Amino acid sequence: MFRVRSAAWLGSVLICLLLADGARASEAGASLYLLGSGGPEAAVTPPVVGVFADDTVYVYDGSAKGGAQFPIGGNVVAGLRATIVADFATVVWVPSTDFAGGTLMFGGALPIGDPLVDVSAVVTGPRGRSFGLSRSDHALKIGDPILTAELGWRQGLTFNGVNRDTQYRTGTEFHLEGSVEKILSPGWSLGAQAYWFDQLTGDSGAGASLGPFKGQVVGVGGTVAHSFKIGPLPATLRVRVMTEFDAKNRLQGTSGWLDFSIPLWVRLPKAPRA
């Protein structure tokens, strides 16, 4: 079974779809890292040299709890609700499985998404004026292609940059994810997964009008996977559903995932001589 995961790309693309173009800070209670990406085999890099394809359909519906306020693009809003449907097509090339002791990977992703964002009130605008207004916005967007490189290991901390349009810098985030999976048969598996997100340092910058705004959330869910062959190629289809609770300064909702993975070409190791 071959699996290719692209959690960091998915999250960074998703935040750009949800917020303003070119955002580099995770405002609006969102994160550059897409929580729930760390499911079964998420940290497994392809074990052989080759080219691998992965397509992920992601659906999320969440809302702010308890009248919480959020900063978005220079505004402070209340009653925030977001519904996101996105597709991430990813291709990964593995030129070496023994580069500096790890697996070297190069990849690219093309995101397509339709985020629907509703707010019941805009509390303050960019110039400090206060007013009330209900707003709704959505648009189908094709994101810029993303290129990346990876050397066979993953880090659990996310260090964020600055959104120079709004002068907003998000603090350092910590996310811990885990999963267990039971192999039911050669073609089927069933499992559970969970994640815990906690922001270690507060937001800052002139645009951080709500102060440190540290966020946290917990998510739990289940997954089922089916492995099969398309001609000679082994493929995997995985479904996951995650629900969130105990959110603070973040949206709280439910996400659904449909992942399809297949190797396009692999160079199998030579069999040992008899």
Structure description:
The longest helix is centred in the N-terminal third of the chain and has 12 residues, at 7-18. Residues 1-25 have low confidence and may be disordered. The relative contact order is 0.22. The chain has one domain (7-266). The strands form three sheets. Strands 1, 4, 5, 7, 8, 9, 10, 13, 14, 15, 16 and 17 form a twelve-stranded antiparallel β-sheet that branches. Strands 2-3-6 form a three-stranded antiparallel β-sheet, with no helix packed on it. It has a two-stranded antiparallel ribbon with strand order 11-12. It has one helix at residues 7-18, and strands spanning 49-63, 69-72, 75-78, 81-99, 102-119, 121-124, 135-138, 141-142, 146-151, 157-158, 162-163, 168-169, 173-183, 188-199, 216-230, 233-248, 252-267. The chain has 274 residues and is mostly beta strands.
Which structural category do the helix and sheet elements fall into? Answer: mainly beta
Q: List low-confidence stretches.
A: 1-25
* Secondary-structure element series: HEEEEEEEEEEEEEEEEE
Number of strands: 17
Number of domains: 1
Shape: elongated
Approximate strand percentage = over 45%
Q: So how many helices?
A: 1
Task: Output mean pLDDT.
Answer: 77
What's the layout of helices and strands?
Layout lengths: L6 H12 L30 E15 L5 E4 L2 E4 L2 E19 L2 E18 L1 E4 L10 E4 L2 E2 L3 E6 L5 E2 L3 E2 L4 E2 L3 E11 L4 E12 L16 E15 L2 E16 L3 E16 L7
Antiparallel strand pairs: 1-4, 1-17, 2-3, 3-6, 4-5, 5-7, 5-8, 5-9, 10-13, 11-12, 13-14, 14-15, 15-16, 16-17
